[in-house]
Specification:
This protein has 237 residues and is of the alpha/beta class. It is built from ten helices and eight strands. 45% of the residues lie in helices and 16% in strands. Helix 4 packs parallel to helix 5.
Length: 237
């Protein structure tokens, strides 16, 4: 397999350790789903102290990379007819993201029917001189990919394989188990408060990715509306 770019890897490990990565992914087809808004979100996140940015889509990655040197965790999401894999499913996606300015490329690393084997995607990321992040759902797959040279292991997909039964809490146990094995764990998925993000670091996470709680206005507004409506109903009783 193509070896990892050690100089880039070491630079990113030094830069991102115990930091916040802000995911600037607007709601699909929502009012914020425009390249200029994604760039604005990214720059605002950097102003607030984010050390990394998770960006979806070639145009968005290219535009953000042209406006900031902050490392980008880049992905492409696709809705495929013959596979549940959405995050960076093809080698051509990796090649395009690398050309657009990605530092890190993340891919779905779940054991489901998929168009491209996980190790082939990892090889392609290294061949395109980028650093890899595996968006995992289980302990064993994360350990396996780390052994094959995947620099960052994310809890991104944990709790999301069954969309009808998504838990409320982050998967702290998974983060802790990986960290105990010395993996560079990026805690991601339902870290929607500063307290949750801090707990991940306390459990050994390398860094934390936060998205909806920072950049999805629709979701944040809905959280407040639901709490207010529930309080109103209780008050009426």
């Amino acid at each position: 397999m193509t070896p990892v770019n050690k100089d880039l890897e070491q630079t990113l490990l030094s830069h991102l350790k115990h930091s916040l990565i802000t995911s600037c992914q607007p709601v699909d087809k929502g009012p914020m789903d425009k390249v200029e808004h994604v760039v604005a979100m990214a720059l605002a996140a950097v102003d607030g102290g984010a050390k990394g940015l998770r960006i979806e889509g070639i145009e968005n990655v290219r535009a953000v990379a042209q406006t900031t040197s902050t490392p980008i965790v880049a992905i492409i999401k696709r809705d495929l007819d013959d596979s549940p894999i959405r995050i960076t499913p093809f080698i051509k996606d990796i090649e395009a993201l690398a050309q657009a300015g990605a530092s890190i490329i993340a891919f779905d690393a779940t054991n489901r029917h998929r168009p491209t084997p996980m190790l082939d995607l990892l090889e392609a990321i290294h061949a395109n001189d980028c650093i890899a992040m595996a968006d995992c759902a289980d302990y064993e797959t994360g350990v396996l990919l780390a052994k094959h040279g995947c620099t960052f292991i994310g809890s991104t997909m944990s709790g999301y394989l069954d969309l009808h039964n998504t838990p409320n809490q982050p998967d702290y146990d998974l983060v802790k188990k990986w960290a105990e094995q010395g993996l560079n764990v990026i805690a991601e998925g339902r870290y929607n408060s500063p307290e949750r993000a801090a707990k991940a670091i306390e459990l050994g996470a390398f860094s934390v990715t936060v998205g909806s709680a920072i950049t999805r206005v629709e979701h944040i507004t809905q959280w407040f509306v639901e709490r207010i409506e529930n309080a109103s109903k209780l008050g009426a009783n």
